[in-house]
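Try this one yourself first.
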């Protein structure tokens, strides 16, 4: 399981992790904390489901949400940056998307998810388009976020 691999890598590096979640609603944090000993490297998470929470809790500028939306590469990058700063972590993962089954538009369909990683060496964001159920899309979003962290933490 990816969350176990993440734990091994973070422990070996002596690094810490925080998360900011929207469409996954805490699933990423749940998976990370299911690993015994996660308190050594996991600082915590912020569930910012509503755009106002993204602004208030994570410091996402209102202009980003107005110009690009709460489900966008720009917003998700800002969420990751905000979680890293507010929770004083080395790494921060952020996820925002449209899990479904409703809520999609032609421009932003169900299954559209952005994952971002803020790290000491930079910030990365990926766009994904999943085609599963609501639960499947949420799980896939967490998998994508954990894979992004592993790639960057291992220097791949």
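Now uncover the answer:
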């Amino acid at each position: 399981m990816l969350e176990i691999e993440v734990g091994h890598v973070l422990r070996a590096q002596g690094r810490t992790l925080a998360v900011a979640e929207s469409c996954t609603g805490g699933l990423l944090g749940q998976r990370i904390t299911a690993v015994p000993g996660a308190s050594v490297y996991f600082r915590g998470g912020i569930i910012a489901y509503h755009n106002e929470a993204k602004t208030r809790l994570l410091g996402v500028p209102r202009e980003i949400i107005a110009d690009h939306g709460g489900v966008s590469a720009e917003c998700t990058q800002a969420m990751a940056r905000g979680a890293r700063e507010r929770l004083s972590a080395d790494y921060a993962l952020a996820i925002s998307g449209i899990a479904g089954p409703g809520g999609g538009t032609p421009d932003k369909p169900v299954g559209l998810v952005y994952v971002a990683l803020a790290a000491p060496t930079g910030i990365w964001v990926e766009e994904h388009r999943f085609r599963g159920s609501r639960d499947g899309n949420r799980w896939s979003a967490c998998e994508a976020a954990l894979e992004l962290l592993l790639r960057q933490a291992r220097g791949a």
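Discussion: The mean pLDDT is 97. The CA atoms of residues 36 and 62 lie 38 Å apart.
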